[in-house]
Amino acid sequence: MRYVLGIESSCDETAAAIVREDGKILSHVITSQFNAHSPYGGVVPEIAAREHIQAAHRVITQAITQSGLSIKQLSAVAATTGPGLIGAVMVGATIGKAVAMACSIPFISINHLEAHALVVRQEQQVSFPYLLLLVSGGHCQIILARGLGNYQVLGRTRDDALGEAFDKCSKMLGLGMPGGPAIERAAQQGNPHAHAFARPMFGTAHADFSFSGLKTAVRMHIEAISKVTGSLPPQAVADICASFQQAAFDAVVDRLRVSLTLCDAVPEHLVIAGGVAANLVLRHKLEHFCNQNAITLAVASPNLCTDNGVMIAWAGMERLIAGDISALSCDIKARWPLESLEPLAV
Ligand code: KG4
Ligand code: ZN
Question: Please, are residues 312 and 95 in contact by the beta-carbon 8 Å criterion?
């Protein structure tokens, strides 16, 4: 059996994991930089890079110790080489290359988005082609995964990512960060039909997203209600959360419906990945959408939906099995769209 060490450092999580060829996770270590960035209200690239440098040695050592393997048993090292914050990506990628060099084993360069796309296959039987909805704080895309390195991007956001829209609305409502879980929680007490927020891009022939108009509509409602009542009563907050969530997810379902008409192959599965996949209202809506369209919904475990090392190790394993290893001189990229990857003949 082959073993791959995966290293992730593209944003504000330093993570490392080891997976076995059959998908078994031998170790899974992750450390978040949330506290380092929270005074600034967003991820600061320079701080992210420094935090990765401080955490990487501990995280990688723990991943190796937890796995029970000796470093000599590793078959390859995989690391995110983009897209992401360039200084942050550089830390994990350079350490990954150094470990591969020291152990005389292959290095495998991983596109972070491809790792999100593939990780579900580490635990479930999901074969190509499948539809992927990738929705997090930084990503918002609908993709047809046709094979390794072979992706058709059907739709992407023209402004904010969906998770980012949750976070910004949460801040406006004084619910704090991360906004997604806070809004989902508050929405449970609210009426999703209280405010008829426009469904962004609804009915357009392309499958792109836009959430900035919805965000502005939420801000205007907050201002209008606060003007009358002086502050926002808890029920008003709950109603805005429920109505925002309803509008945003209706838009997602509409975009998925259009994306099915744009696919150049028929997918059997819809896979959801990214932090927003944790939202139960979204899952419920997508189950309904899948039933209507004879598609099976597949969701990776919650801790594999958000950024992690397992997804990098697994993408590395898929590429190793396909015989695709990278030169130690391979580049790192801040921007690296999925459709620019080379399809691999497997
Ligand atoms: O994948 P992730 O952990 O990090 C990246 O952005 O890459 O995703 C975090 C995002 C945040 O914007 C957070 O608000 C959102 O996912 N999120 C949710 C929920 N849990 C996390 N959004 C909606 N509902 C949730 N339950
Ligand atoms: Zn990610």
Answer: no
Q: Is 160 in the pocket of ligand 1 (CB under 6 A)?
A: no
Tokens representing 154 are 């059907």
Judge if the beta carbon of residue 278 lies within 6 A of ligand 1: yes
* pLDDT tens, position by position, 139-169: 999 999 999 999 999 999 999 999 999 999 9
Cβ of 6 less than 6 Å from ligand 1: no
Burial of 171 (0-12, 13-18, 19+ CB in 10 A): middle
273 CA from centroid of ligand 1 (Å): 10
Residue 73 Cα, ligand 1 centroid: separation in angstroms?
A: 35
Instruction: Read off the amino acid at residue 5.
Output: L
Write the pLDDT tens digit of every residue in 19-61: 999 999 999 999 998 888 988 878 899 999 999 999 999 999 9
CA–CA gap between residue 251 and residue 71 (Å, rounded): 47
Residue 42, pLDDT score: 80
Residue 315: its pLDDT value, please?
98
Question: Ligand 1 in contact with 307 (CB < 6 A)?
Answer: yes
CB atoms within 10 A of CB 345: 11
